Amino acid sequence: MSPLIARLWHFLPAFLAGMSVNFEIAGIALAFGLALGILLALARLQGGATGMAAGTIVGLMRAAPTFVVMFFLLNALPRGGGLSGVMIVALSLMPYAAAYVADSGVDALRQLRAGSHLACLLVLPNVARAFFVLVMSSSAGAAIGVREGIAVLLRQAQQVPSLGDMLILFAIGVACFGIPLQAGFAIIRLIQRHLGRVALRGQAAPLTGEAALSAKR
Amino acid sequence: MSSKSGRRLARGRVFRAAAGLFAAAWLVTAVPTAARADNSPDAALARLLAEARSAAAVPGACAEPGADRLDHVLCAGRIRVGVRDEYPLFGTLSGTIRQGYEIDMARAVARRLGVEAAFVKVKAATRIPMLADDTIDLVVATMGDNTQRESQVRFIRPHYYRSETMLVGPRDLAVADWKDIQGLTVCVTVGNASNAELVSHGARLMLFDEAVTLPERLVDQTCTLAAQDDSFFDYYFTDPDFAARFSEKFGFGPMPWGMGVAQTGSDRLARVLDLMSQMFHRDGVFLAAARANHIGTGFLAEQQELWARPGCDTQFGSAVAACVLPPANAELQPTPFAGGVAVFENWFAGLTGVDLQLPMLKTAPAWSLFLSGVVNSLILIAGALGATLAFALLFGPAMAARSPLLRWPARAITVALQSSPILLTLVIAAAVMHALVPNSPSVALCAAIAALGLANGSNAGQAISEAYLTLRVERGELPGGGVGLFSRALSRAATQIVAFLINAAKGTPIASFIGAPELLSALTDITSFSSGRATTYTLLLVFYTAVVIAVVWLCRRFQGFLERSHAAA
Predict the structure, then answer these.
(1) Which CATH class name applies to A3-216?
(2) What is the pLDDT averaged over residues A109-124?
(3) For the CA atoms of chain B, what is the radius of gyration?
(4) Which residue in chain B is spatially nearest to A168 when comparing CA positions?
């Protein structure tokens, strides 16, 4: 067994365990983001001062860079507020998740009020897309010592002797992150197409009915 | 005059001459010997203690408000000593048993004074305030003597130990000098004076509150290196597993450790301890305690030799510059406006009750780091925006090209970039750049611009290509295309392009991970050797949020321009 393959043999289980932390962080961030985002979306739809305040908050959360929020939580709170590294990364991703959910939620609620249930359902693939973006963004945790996938990969990369071996490791990392991501996006596209077809059938059915009525007249 | 009387006279002269010679000889030999004996630290200490005991014996003297701490100690029959209880080999508490080099020293001091040692736990942050508020009489707690602390504590000289900051890392990691640490992650404790030195040599610092975390972070490979007093690592190197995995790389910043007493009301206690300290060095008391506790003895062996020399072994030896070590220089040059900043901080605290601290404005090195951080951040943001746009304009037409030779590689690169977390893309860009050119902060900045541009530009390019393809379908076989069609595609993809431009600007702080000297990196460095972390990171968040809002505004104007140009066309 070549040294690189032997290294990979030990590395892959640790890397996959690290990747599970990325999914865990994304899950927590999305859960918080959904809770806050839905509240903000409802507040924005109320209009008036509440709507304006909610809009301003969403604007600020959209503009706050995740990496800076993470360091802010780590350093501005005494002893990081007693939070674990995983929770700090998840909370730093929450402003993005909440702003995204609020924006998508406002669109969905408007579609629902307009009577388009299917357009409203588009919020689901959008939330799934946000989840995959959060998985990728959770790699920021490597900068504060969270043992997620990229942290494991970088530690391993420090121990390989040549740039070529290092690039092979990185390629494996990209593939491991890319396969679930691209598969996820493919599923989202399938769902969107399915919803689109359902919508078209929905539009076609009343037309057919009307045409029948015209024929009777 | 008879011959008899003449002989008597002569004998008398001889006797007187002999007596004179004897007296002269006595003056030459005996008197200096006595004077030297009086000048010894032992005699001076005995005199001072006798005087203090006599004074303490006077009724009411112990309640005297202006009495020296030495009098209080002798009156109470105990000396309250502030010690560490979690510093292996120096001061630990296990159940009710205290042990360590500093504990042995404190006991030796108490024995010489003829009193009991009453130990009080102190921490780095509490040891000086506890001296000032009379909770303890003496601190023997791993306290380095530096120019900053000289104004807060009366240090006892000679110093009882000397440490230096040691860089520790994996055995197989080749680090021998400053040039080897550039870009490496070094774990340090917040407020360590040596952090400024590490920063100036390009190390990437990871901050921790407690030193005990550092070995754990070395073991779990969070840190490439850890920097802390060599005295701290002494204990960990007694563990065979730790010693097998890690080694000392190099040390820097020697720091003498001193016992300390309060600045006011402790003159006589300090004088007594100065003398005692001299004698402990000369007589090998410190050295024996160090050997018993398995700590480094090189410095103490040197000191024993030094304090046995006649020039130092006098009652005034601790005031002789050639005998004692100077405090380490920890003073950072203040900025010309540091005074004004302090006034503003106090005014703000009085007004709002918020403890605002602006360390980046108060010292010259921090100010310099802050300014260059702001400038580099703005360069990075401008560069990332430019690179995103440039790669979008490159990838867009390539992905929409009719030739598969152009289309498929562009799509493959885009899928790969979409599948790579941005942190990994940054690290790959940095690794490739370092393989081509020597590592430096400007190379890291260029690598970050390239990585952010590629990651966001490929996505924006995909949006352009999709817009281009839809336009081609809509136009069918109608004439046209080329530049005109491409500009319409740009206009149609304007929202997506703007979204990825904003994303690029938001992503710039992550460049600090590969050592790009932007503002996050600069402020992390500043807070590693100064206070005010909460304020600093709050200001950082405000800065970046404001910059992103400004970028959003600019991008919206750009989007408007694209859409108007399409409408005009």
Answers:
(1) mainly alpha
(2) 76
(3) 36
(4) B428
